[in-house]
Records
---
Amino acid sequence: MKRLPLHRRPFWAKRILEIGPGHAPFVGVTHAVDKFPTNNEQRAGDLNLAAGVEFREGDLEAIPFGPYEANEPGTVNQSNSKFDYLYVSHVLEHVKHPEKAISEVNRVTERGYIATPSPLREQLSCPYPFVGEADFHRFFCWRSRDSKVIHVLEKSADRLGEFCGCRYGLMAERLFKFQRIDGLELESLMPTLSKETRVYFATPLNVVIHSSFVDACADGACAYRSVKYVTFWTSPFTYWVSSRLGRLRAILKKPI
Ligand SMILES: [Zn+2]
């Protein structure tokens, strides 16, 4: 079972929906939706739900819970109220239409938490070269300073290995070369915050679709800002207290 950090946990929420709980749902969930109730291909174990959780098969682009617009065809109106909180952990990067997914999020909840791999992690760890349909993750997802906006960029052969020219992009490119070309296993050395995009939001949430990492950075929405957690946690202080980060620091100091 997963939990948010104490100061982020929605203790006040009564109706809590999770999309894609898989084998590791969040604590306190009252309703759940999963696209693959019996197929474990995209997760590490069987679907695992606490007793009493109301479950429906469905996905983020068509959430099978209300409230719906009146008379919308093909829908079953179950409730006129929104959920108090929504968990969407490592699902958004799988969808075909992120705008549709975010409009569904806005329809069903007031607040929530979305997590995806960070673009830095995708660059370091996803199948490479790009393998198209064989890759379950279709989008890079990140946040900017505005927590009401999620930025996305479709994965493609051209985007894998593309970096912007800002200081974050240059550091991400450096890590990419260490991992992909020199074959150094960096991911296990990096702090979680650098590897995950985490958005705590109140609706309405917006989505911005970009066409390249360079353009996104030029528009003020650099995708590689999470690299700052790598450099921060390998500062001289942590160098002394952690052999894991000390090793990463030694790698970062290596000339290209
Ligand atoms: Zn940038």
Note: The first helix runs from residue 98 to 108.
---
Amino acid sequence: MRRRTVLAGLTGLSAGLALPATARAEPQSRPNGPWIQPEQVVQKVALTENADLGPKLAGIAARSGGRMSVEVAGRSATGWPIHLARFGEPAPGKTSLLIQTQIHGGEPLGTEVALHLMQTLATSSHPTVLDVLDKLAIWFIPRLNMDGGDFRNADGFLVQRRQNTQPWTPQEWGLAPGTPAPWYLPRQLLQPGQTPGYDINRDFSPDLGFRLGPGDEALLPGRSELPGFFVTPEARTSAAVFQRMRPDFFIDHHHRGSNTQSDTDNQLTTLQLVGIVTAGTPDFPLDPAARDLAFQVNVLVWDRLRELGNSGFGGITRYPDVELPGTALGSYALNGAGIMLYETRSVAQKSMGMLIQQSLFGFGATLEGLTDGSVYAVDPNRYHDIPPAGPSIGNPRDDL
Ligand SMILES: [Zn+2]
């Protein structure tokens, strides 16, 4: 039996499944519900190139009647603009949510999900959307890693990659020449003919104002179980947005792996979730309340996606345990935000629309759960009921 509740405290996707045809014909449900409809398959997804992202965001903002504003929050290492799109401002009584995508340049679908969601938030007159906008402040950093999102091979073809484009410059930090690069600048990218760059999602520290300085040579190269060093302008831009908003909740959207996989494993895990990526550091312990909110949101999304039945969304599992305080998720969790990681299945051309829908549905369920308060009724201990990842998953250190 599918959920009968009107809108189900959920998204238009579930409403489309649950409501009788007459109800679906009501004006606020046209043409595509608040978020996206199950029959509205996103075909032939055209991924947004860097040069088109700013104009797309400006276009959505221009149609938003003042709901959305866009600014350049920072610049990538090579100078691309890093955009910040804002719906509302944090205020007492409002729940604030920061959604970040594509910190790994080769993991592009989250940016498309964000653009879909922004479009709905900007233009829909659906009462659920109006309620969300009334109760929440929602900010987006779409495609944090613009360099990786535009990375091209020697022939100029867009191939994208995980890292940004940035050399190691110890002198910039007042460090002795010869100081080793942070460990998350892959050594193979320091070889001749390679373009150096950092895994931005290891460059964070729970000390959001941390900067390397003279005498810090002994901290390098560091290691994965420790905070990073904020050497990338992308991580510093994200952290500045975080400090400005101080969100109650943070969503980071990734792919498991970064390249095509066979369509034949379509029925394997389509999504991995995680609500905890660090146990905390001595100076930055993990707030149990933030951890519980993280568990609640993760369980809510897990529940809602499973309720969709024959939606095409496959198994959902829990990302393996990790200790990564140098990730955006880890550092923000240690600054009091509830967190959720999306690791959607890697891009396979035929599945991209489904994968976008899946994440879009999860985002919508989260917005509605935070708006109507239903998420706070979820038992956080059920987080551990989310099945663990299957054996085919590679080293989790390499995906998140
Ligand atoms: Zn990733």
Note: The beta strands are 68-75, 81-87, 95-101, 136-141, 249-255, 271-274, 316-318, 338-344.
---
Amino acid sequence: MELKALCMKCRDEKNKPTMQVMKDVKVEEKNNRFSAKGVCSSCGGNMFKFLSKDDAMKVKNG
Ligand SMILES: [Zn+2]
């Protein structure tokens, strides 16, 4: 599954963060809350996103 997250470095002409594809995604679980860490496919900056359990399973299973 392709995961997208807001990238704080990739900004549009209005200087707002834009949605970019996250690569090298690692899913983490803590206290039954899921999150994804990865890097922006556009600029290589670090990304972070909270996931629902369903999405976490989809990402883990490809
Ligand atoms: Zn970026």
Note: The pocket of zinc ion is lined by residues 7, 9-10, 20, 40, 42-43, 45 (CB under 6 Å).
---
Amino acid sequence: MCTKHYCHIVPPYILEALAKRGNSSCKKALNDSQRFLERRRTVLNNLMVREFEDGNGDRFIYDSQNKNEQRVALVRQEGDDPTQDETANKAYETSGFVRDYFKDTFGLDSIDGNGLDVISNIHYGQAYNNAFWDGDEMTYGDGDGEEFTNFASAIDVVAHELAHGVTQFLSNLEYQSQPGALNEHFSDVFGTIIKQKYLKQNISEADWLIGDSIVTEAFPGVALRSMKAPGTANEFDSQPDNMADYYTGMSDNQGVHINSGIPNKAFYLSCLEIGIDDCGLIWFETLKALFRTADFNDMLDTILRVAQELTIAGKVSDSSVDAITHSFAEVGLTQVMV
Ligand SMILES: [Zn+2]
């Protein structure tokens, strides 16, 4: 049992900034997101915790037919031939790739480790500028074509959102302040790893961007975020890459999409030293070992312990502990000795 999480790929401050410039679809997405969040909160208040139904990790693709509703019409399920709708086929392919990555790499049986069916809703709303995981399924808009497009086709977006599901079931990090920034961080970590695997890129070929393929030419930037250079992906990107610039404001659930830039940069630096596969295993095992209220210091303590254990077990490079220590020190995080 665990509490349900809710996360959108496009952060509220980007939608707000675009809405202020007159993009009505961004304003609509923002309003709809808030309405949806309120509705989910009501459901949560009623349920608080619920049992999730185990399945076979099968994919189900539903077409919302441009309504603001989920599970309207089932258009493709596990094993079915491709449909006429390319968005449905893409959602089927990308969600399967993410599910299989976690299974093949870490032995995780679907998103919850218990064969949860992987449900995707496509064509949600009219020109809806977002995609979200709401606790047990995925939902994708088509984008307005002005600023955003193709949410269900973007492997990093799909992986980022499904990784929120993995986090929900493995450590249940709460979605605010530092635990929330870690929650966002882990989604960017697996979003970028899975994107590199999907595109068959090595770490020097990769762009380390999140959401580059969902933004149009008109969008004022190249992506939503950059793990290599936090704060540079677009005009509104205020992600810090060091604790010296830590965001202390209240917006964005106390900066969950903002302060995630700090551990994101540490992940990027660690990958340069020990590679993405060793980092993937270390980060995955760390996620399993974390807990709901874990902050950045807990993350560092845990990841160093996990890296040491995996090194002793011969599963990762001997230099893993040093690499992670350097990388976190580079972003202003060092272990607090008590
Ligand atoms: Zn997210």
Note: The longest strand covers residues 59-63.
